[in-house]
Amino acid sequence: MAYACELTGKRKLKGHRVSHANNKTIHYQMPNIQVRTFFLPELKSRVRVKVSTSALRTVTKLGGLSLFLVKANPTQLSVRLQKIRSTLLQKGFKN
């Protein structure tokens, strides 16, 4: 899972580059993945996350990783972040 966002599940896209002679070569479009460290004050811990830049903007807009995890669809999150989300909900964190 090198090229996948842990928050949104964005992955690399596969396609073809087609020449004028109709030769097809495989081409991958990679998402802009960044490694960021977020601090979760509710758990008093830091979390390193591979996140796409579009998801990073959404996290900033919502006001932090905790709020993003609570509002997010759990099926899109990675297994590690699903556990953190359930821990937040058990601690009684609400949006």
Short description:
This protein is an alpha+beta fold and about 100 residues long. It has a single domain (about 15-90), classed as Ribosomal Protein L24e, Chain: T.
Overview of the structural elements:
- It is a single chain.
- The protein has 95 residues and is α+β, with helices and mostly antiparallel strands.
- The chain has one domain: Ribosomal Protein L24e, Chain: T.
- The chain contains 3 helices and 4 strands.
- It has a two-stranded antiparallel sheet with strand order 1-2. A two-stranded antiparallel sheet has the order 3-4.
- Strand 3 (33-40) and strand 4 form a beta hairpin.
- The radius of gyration is 17 Å and the shape is elongated.
The CATH class label is: Mainly Beta
| Widest beta sheet: strand line-up | 1-2
Could you name the ranges where pLDDT drops below 50 across 5 or more consecutive residues? none
How many structural domains does the protein architecture include?
1
CATH architecture: Roll
Order of SSEs: EEEEHHH
User: How many strand units?
Assistant: 4
